[in-house]
Design goal:
By secondary structure, the chain is mainly alpha-helical. Helix content is 70%, strand content 6%.
Length: 107
């Protein structure tokens, strides 16, 4: 359900509906607080709204949920479905550039 709520959030972001975007991101976290993408999206949302306190809070939670940082050559099987989901949907596997963008929100 967490990923479904995240997909709904992306839909409402595309439609420009901030209220529903935020609501579905929060719902995504309620279903599963172990992902990165939902926390990162909320951190960026609050940063754009000027709420640095919430942006930092959600950025730190996203960072805490990162389980693996990919480096060049560290991916051994690009067809691994679990790695694909962890990187592109959950965000628990990420690269240094995405991780650095989260650290930027903590400043």
């Amino acid at each position: 359900m967490s990923m479904i709520e995240l997909a709904k959030a992306w839909y409402y972001e595309e439609k420009g509906n901030d209220e529903l975007y935020e609501q579905h991101l929060l719902n995504s976290i309620r279903y599963c607080d172990k992902h990165v993408k939902n926390y990162k999206a909320l951190a960026n949302f609050y940063a754009k709204k000027g709420d640095k306190g919430k942006a930092k809070k959600f950025a730190q939670k996203a960072i805490n949920n990162v389980k693996e940082i990919f480096t060049q050559g560290s991916i051994t099987d690009v067809t691994d479905v679990e790695d694909f989901i962890n990187e592109f949907f959950k965000g628990t596997c990420t690269d240094k550039y995405n991780l650095e963008s989260l650290y930027e929100l903590l400043k």
